[in-house]
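Cross-posted from the bioinformatics board.
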Amino acid sequence: MSVVLEQIFQVGFLAAIIRIATPLAFATLGEMFSERAGVLNLGIEGIMLLCAMTGFTATSLSGSLWFGVLVAVLTGMLMGALHALFTVALGLSQHVCGIGVTLFSSGLAYFLYRLIFGQQSVPPAIKGFQTLPIPVLSDIPVLGPAVFNQFALVYMAIIAIPLAAFVLYRTPWGLSVRMVGENPRAADSAGVSVIATRFQAVILGGALMGLAGAFLSMAQFNAFTFGVVSGRGWVAIALVVFGRWDPWRSAGAALLFAFVDALQLRMQASGLGHIPYEAFLMLPFIFTIVAMAVMSRNAVAPSALLKPFRREER
Amino acid sequence: MPAPLIEMRGITKSFGAVKANEAVDLSVAPGEILGLLGENGAGKTTLMNVLFGAYAPDAGEILVQGQPVRITSSADALAAGIGMVHQHFHLAPRLTVLENLLIGIPGKSGRIDRAGGLARLAEIGRQHGLTLDPDLPVSALSVGEQQRLEIVKALFRGARLLILDEPTAVLAPSEVDGLFSALRSMAAQGLGIIFISHKLNEVRALTHRCTVLRHGRVAGRVDDPANTTSAAMAQLMCGHEIVPPARGPSTPGADVLTLDGISTSKHAGTVLRDVSLAVRAGEILGIAGVSGNGQRALAEVISGVRAPDAGRMTIAGQTVSRFSPREVQALGLGRIPEDRMTTGLVTNLPLADSMVLPRIGTAAFSAKGLLKPDAIRAFAEEQIKAYDIRCPGPMTRAGALSGGNLQKALLARELAFDPKVLIVSQPTRGLDIGAARFIHEKFLDMRAKGCGIIVIGEDLEELLVLCDRIAVMYEGRIVDTLGSAEATIARLGLLMTGAEGHS
Ligand SMILES: Nc1ncnc2c1ncn2[C@@H]1O[C@H](COP(=O)(O)OP(=O)(O)OP(=O)(O)O)[C@@H](O)[C@H]1O
Ligand SMILES: [Mg+2]
């Protein structure tokens, strides 16, 4: 056990947590915006995969990483708009459409990837994002190398958290998002367009999911594989509940999950070899389930979550 | 008379086969309080929703200060200076007062304009005596305060015409006075007000003019409500005369429901403290009190929803042991809950299903674990006819019915099974006088048949008409019980404020 404890207090371990947390934080914030407006987006898993693919492809074809990120974000927005079209404009079941979007996006990702790259024995790779040390700050002991010697996308995630809180709680648009998620009729009778606000929130959510996907294929793995997302989207949905639909808490939940995940990676590597490694892989998910059961007992979802808005119905 | 502020001309609106409004004309002048009257389902709410842009009319036009305007959304209506306080409030309970107020208001340099909002709120508060704590969540407000917030919301957006859809149905009598003085102050400043109510004495006290709807059409207008009798207005609304029911002397029998030392704890709201009461067969017992003094807990205990911590309850001589709705029902209790929409009926199911719901497991409606849809339908059809429930048919979604018709449906459902005891809360809230009269008659019929009835209510006039005895609740206790001969509005009112009973 002391081996494990030693590992925890290493700089590398801290850096690993933050790296693992980054795509989760983007995804969780994205899902949170969507749900705060009253739209559950189960398409997240597939959207992340498709964005990982389009971002990777755009970079590998153009050679520009930031162009790839842009393409991934636009892909996410497009898929968000698709989900909103079904669930907000047409008022169809959010569960069914979300699963549909995930299946469609995943299938599209595989298909386009094969179409563009064919079947290669060695999967194509790109030179992904490199760490970008921030002068002065990265010299702080322990914290410096762990937090301030990271990919640019990590810094973006760190900034995204307070920004999301600001937008949600301090701007008129954020208030509209919260209102359409709580009582769309109230928003409507106050002159706020429920349909437009929900579209915007779901599309913003899609953009953040796009960043999550881009991080995976362009900073973390520098390649696109079919398992690149491997359930992170589903985890984000749980983390939103765990984080009680609040940006700060959701980000905290992502960090906590990342901690357990980093821990199990270390445990796999640290000679506790007689235990099958799959047991360690389960750890973060068991943690999520337990944390959800304990923490979200009195979490209250946005009142209008899952409910389509039709004005002339009563 | 000054030029009209708002004019509606030839408004027609249908929902499927139902013509909710047909060629309706209506106008309001600045500074005028217009009463909008009509039976349940006459189309008042629909007409106002058209004016407020929530429903698109099939025909007709709206003029604001003489200019035709197209109103296709609430945003258009607000821009035209029209504000509305809905029958069911449009608020987000988990957001604060200020957030509910500032929704849809552009911010200042990208942020919510908190300071500006606070200043406007204080100003409106000063002008009309409508004060609110800006940082409380709306869920912490009383119903009266929520309504105040809705009014402030409309004024905040610069409304020059304020529509209030049955604002007094949810208020305690003491709160009504406050509302009226605020409305008079607004009218004095040149605002136009449309006031919907089924309580004709309120209409006569407040309004300057009335428009009466019947079956979606304008049935007539009243130019001088203060000097028109309620009976005349009622005749205009219903098309026939309404005679008050006569309550004959009662011949009460044995106790059908007794509570002995019932106390509750551990739940939100007022708890019950050592409540004892008895209802006899063929008797109507009223429970008067300002709402929030334990009436809800009392109704929940009696209907088996909540088990008391101490005390004993009997129904028809049998002690209730497990306190479940099924048990008390099996012992012969019928109930009509306060909130028709949430605890009464399932608004998304067909009316027929809701009407048999409490007895879905009985042999009449199911056998061998399967429902008997034909029996359910036939039962619903029969009740719809017997109680004159206005709806397209038994398979209509219950939520589409108007309030009065929902109440009739609930009453039909309970009375069809000859309960020994009936407990009802606010039985005629939101009902037109014709419907209220009908419900009262049914209660008196049941009383004559030997049913014991408990009526929980805030409307003292109604209690005095119906009840043989009236118990007054205050802070979870029964402070006194008066017989019909000694009960007066003044005495009940005094007891309701917690002044000691004489015993
Ligand atoms: N959204 C809707 N969908 C279908 N039918 C509706 C809808 N709104 C109203 N109706 C129908 O239109 C008619 C008029 O209803 P409305 O609610 O305007 O009556 P009201 O005069 O406000 O009655 P109340 O006094 O009970 O509030 C009723 O028959 C009602 O069932
Ligand atoms: Mg109405």
